[in-house]
Specification:
- The chain is built from 8 helices and 12 strands.
- The chain is α+β, with helices and mostly antiparallel strands and 227 residues long.
- Helix 5 packs across helix 6, helix 5 runs antiparallel to helix 8 (216-222) and helix 6 (177-184) packs across helix 7 (188-200).
């Protein structure tokens, strides 16, 4: 699974490696609802997402599922198993129709041996992601639910936000209130209550089955000035 909730695109693993994946990857397609990688699987490939959205989750021993993140076009998925050869640590499911480019661990190893600069870029990026993940975990533990939800909506807006003529930003992907709650450790009822409050304050609005950030600056203030 990705090392961070804010995984980047192909350039985030080093321009050289991203180019190698785009050049040598095998094109694949998964229908919505398909499990791409399952927890415990020994498959050690990785994928560059070229279209669609995937959901990454874990299930506890008591059967409770927690959504870790959603990734979209330009994001890498599956790199840990591809680099260390270990079993999958999370479930990766196609939330929509997903297209991607896949490479096996063997292919990746051979290509990186022949391209040491790309290998160094991968190492540097993975170290940076680990630092970012540590910082994000600390912020998640310390912040209250309202702040966590505000930060999440800002993050989703950066990744999937579409500017509207009036300056608002609409989320192009639909996330249910259950999805939002799982991502920040809140119940669906708590998310619904907070969104209703922000609707009354003119901070967010519903647009069909999706959300619009009506006042991103106010949401940023709720988030403490950082995402």
């Amino acid at each position: 699974m990705p090392l961070t909730l804010d995984a980047g695109g192909s350039e985030d693993l080093g321009t050289g490696f991203g180019a190698l994946l785009e050049r040598h990857g095998r094109a694949v397609e998964f229908a919505a609802g398909t499990t791409i990688y399952g927890t415990g699987d020994n498959d050690s490939s990785m994928m560059l997402i070229t279209g669609g959205r995937v959901e990454i989750s874990r299930t506890s021993s008591d059967g409770r599922r927690s959504i870790l993140t959603h990734l979209g076009a330009g994001d890498m998925v599956g790199e840990l198993a591809a680099f260390d050869g270990g079993p999958r640590s999370a479930d990766v499911v196609a939330a929509t129709l997903v297209r991607g480019l896949v490479m096996t661990r063997g292919q990746i190893g051979a290509l990186l041996q022949d391209n040491p600069e790309a290998a160094l870029g991968v190492i540097e990026t993975l170290c940076r992601r680990l630092r970012e993940t540590s910082a994000m975990y600390t912020a998640h533990v310390l912040a209250d639910g309202r702040v966590r939800l505000a930060r999440l909506l800002l993050h989703l807006s950066e990744k999937w936000g579409e500017p509207m003529p009036d300056g608002r930003r609409r989320l192009s992907e639909r996330f249910s209130q259950s999805d939002l709650g799982d991502l920040v450790g809140l119940t669906r009822e708590s998310v619904n209550r907070q969104i209703r409050e922000w609707e009354q304050d003119g901070i967010v609005a519903r647009h069909g089955r999706g959300l619009v950030l009506s006042n991103p600056a106010a949401l940023l203030e709720v988030a403490g000035g950082t995402e």
